[in-house]
Specification:
Layout: H1 4-22, E1 33-37, E2 40-42, E3 47-50, H2 62-69, E4 74-78, H3 79-90, E5 97-101, E6 105-109
Parallel strand pairs: 1-4
Antiparallel strand pairs: 2-3, 5-6
Helix pairs in contact: 1-2
Length: 110
């Protein structure tokens, strides 16, 4: 997505498809959206800095696009960190662990 007009059209279509899918969800009272993103993510700023397989996310306000569909808080988390946090939540007794997601990266939580 090198051309700004092409990127804008793509984002409009992406939001349209997200709205279509969201209309099929049985639950309508969400309190927030958790967005797991591959690559290098500035979680505090809610920005994708680099995504090897989703380059278009680097140049858009992904949180803002999601909030066009759901007027809710959106938390962006790097995907390996999300996996590690999920493991920690399910296995509270585990103090230290190493998560290796083959082909994608490494996440560690200590």
């Amino acid at each position: 997505m090198d051309h700004p007009g092409q990127n804008a059209r793509f984002c409009r279509e992406w939001v349209r498809q997200l709205r279509t899918v969201s209309a099929k969800f049985p639950q309508k009272q969400f309190w927030g959206v958790l967005l797991s993103v591959p690559g290098i993510v500035d979680e505090q700023a809610g920005r994708v800095l680099f995504s090897p397989n989703l380059h278009w996310t680097e140049s858009v306000d992904l949180v803002g696009l999601i909030q066009r569909v759901w007027k809710l808080p959106v938390a962006m988390v790097q995907e390996e960190r999300a996996l590690a946090l999920g493991h920690r939540f399910v296995n509270e007794e585990t103090e230290d662990f190493l998560l290796v997601d083959f082909g994608e990266g490494v996440g560690v939580l200590r």
